[in-house]
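Look over this today:
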Amino acid sequence: MKAVIGITDWNRTRDELRDLARRVDAGARLPEADYHLNFASPIALLTELPPKRLAALREIKTAGPLTIYALAKRLGRNYSNVHADAQRLIDLGLVEKDSEQRLIVPFDDVRVEADASLMAAA
C-alpha cells in the first residue's frame, strides 16, 4: 500500500466518492485502496507539508523506525520543532508510532503528485 499526496478540488472528490458509493451499493468487490491525502490547493499542501516536514517524512521512511530525538539529530534540527512536525505527520496519517513509540512510515511508498500548472498558479 502506498500513500499518495496530491491536490484536488471538491467537485472531483465528490464525483469519485459517488462512483465509489455506486460500486459498493452494487455489491462490487473493491481492491485494496491506497491512502490518499488530498489538499484543495498547492498553498494548502505546502502549508501542511513544508520542505522541512517532508524532509522528516523522507528520513523516517529511509532510516526506518526512529525516536523523535534520533530524527532531530539526523536532521540537525531542534527537538521541539521536529516533535511538532512528527506530531503533524501523525495527525495527517503519514506516520505512526510502533510498539516502542518509534516513528515509522506504514507505507511501501509515499508519492506527492501535483500538476505543474497548479503549482505554478500558487
In short: The two ends are 30 Å apart (CA to CA). Residues 2-121 form a domain with the Arc Repressor Mutant, subunit A fold (CATH 1.10.10.10). Strands lie at 2-7, 35-39, 96-97, 103-104, 109-113.
